[in-house]
Specification:
Pfam families: Glucosamine_iso. The chain is of the alpha/beta class and 234 residues long. It has a single domain, classed as 3-Layer(aba) Sandwich (Rossmann fold), CATH 3.40.50. 31% of the residues lie in helices and 20% in strands. It is built from 8 helices and 10 strands. The strands form 2 sheets. Strands 1-10-9-6-2-3-5 form a 7-stranded parallel sheet, with helices on both faces. It has a 3-stranded antiparallel sheet with strand order 4-8-7. Strand 2, helix 2 and strand 3 form a beta-alpha-beta unit. Helix 1 crosses helix 2 and helix 2 runs parallel beside helix 3. The longest helix is centred in the first third of the chain and has 23 residues. The protein is globular and about 40 Å long. The structure holds ligand LXAUTJHC. Ligand LXAUTJHC binds next to loops.
Length: 234
C-alpha cells in the first residue's frame, strides 16, 4: 500500500477535512450506486468527525455504517463502539447502523451477528475510516492476539474474527469482534485518523520497520495495490 499524509496544525482542521471528504464520498456513491457504505472506527479519536459529518445535508436513508470493530459488550454499554457511533450520528436521521455483536451478548464471543450484518453489505465499502492505538492496532487487530496473523492475511476468506487482546487494553478490557484486514481492504478509499505524538511515533515506526506482528498497522501501510490517506493532528 502506498500512503499520503496530511499533518494538520489543529484537531479542528483534521475534523473538518475528514468530514468533508466523507460527505463527498457519500454523495458520489449515492449518485453513482444509490447508496453509500462506510466502515467506521470506534474509539475516541473519530467521534468529532462523525458529529460534524452528521450535520451534512445528505440523504442519510441511503447511507449504511458498519463499525470496523466492536467490544463484546451490550449495545447500551459505555464501552460499546456502536453506542458511541449512534450518539455521534444522532443528527443523521435515517442512517442505518450495523452491529457486529448482539444487543445483549452472551458469555462467549462469536461472529454470528457480524456475519448477518455483513451479509447485507456485500459490496466494497465506499470508505473505511480507521483509528490506531499507541500500540499500532487498528480496528481490533491487536499485537499479541494469537490469531493476528490470520486476521491480517490479505487472502483471508473470513470477513470477521473474534480477537482476544493479550494483554487486554485497560481502557476497554473486553474481547472484540473485528473486521479482518482482507475485508477492510475491500474499499474504494481508505483513511486513517490519528492524533498525538505517541501515535505519530508508532506510525513512523510501522512505516519504516514493516513488522505487523509488533505494529499491526504496518500490514496496511505495506499492503500492495491499496492507498491509505493518513490524517494526523496534535
Ligand atoms: O479500541 C479501539 O481503539 C482504536 C483507537 O481508539 P482511540 O480511542 O485511540 O481513537 C479504535 O480505532 C478502535 O476502533 C477501537 O475499538
Amino acid at each position: 500500500m502506498s500512503w499520503t499524509e496530511a499533518l494538520h496544525d489543529h484537531g479542528d482542521a483534521l475534523v473538518e477535512t475528514l468530514a468533508a471528504r466523507l460527505a463527498g464520498i457519500c454523495r458520489d456513491a449515492i449518485a453513482a450506486r444509490g447508496h453509500a457504505l462506510l466502515a467506521l472506527a470506534g474509539g475516541r479519536t473519530p467521534l468529532p468527525i462523525y458529529r460534524r459529518l452528521a450535520k451534512e445535508n445528505l440523504d442519510w436513508h441511503a447511507v449504511t455504517v458498519v463499525p470496523t470493530d466492536e467490544r463484546w459488550v451490550a449495545h447500551d454499554h459505555s464501552a460499546s463502539n456502536r453506542r458511541e457511533l449512534a450518539a455521534a450520528f444522532a443528527d443523521a436521521t435515517g442512517i442505518r447502523l450495523g452491529a457486529l455483536v448482539p444487543a445483549q451478548p452472551g458469555d462467549v464471543p462469536d461472529t454470528a451477528q457480524a456475519r448477518l450484518t455483513l451479509a447485507d453489505c456485500r459490496g466494497d465499502f465506499d470508505a473505511v475510516l480507521l483509528g490506531m492505538g499507541n500500540d499500532g492496532h487498528f480496528a481490533s487487530l491487536f499485537p499479541g492476539a494469537t490469531n493476528l496473523g490470520e486476521a491480517l492475511a490479505f487472502d483471508n476468506a473470513d470477513d470477521v474474527c473474534v480477537i482476544h487482546p493479550d494483554p487486554l487494553p485497560p481502557e476497554a478490557p473486553f474481547a472484540r469482534v473485528s473486521l479482518t484486514a482482507a475485508r477492510l481492504l475491500r474499499s474504494r478509499t481508505s483513511w486513517l485518523a490519528i492524533t498525538g505524538e505517541r501515535k505519530l511515533s508508532a506510525l513512523r515506526d510501522a512505516q519504516t520497520t514493516r513488522d505487523p506482528q509488533r505494529l499491526p498497522i504496518a500490514a496496511l501501510l505495506h499492503a500492495p495495490q491499496a492507498h491509505l490517506h493518513i490524517h494526523w493532528s496534535p
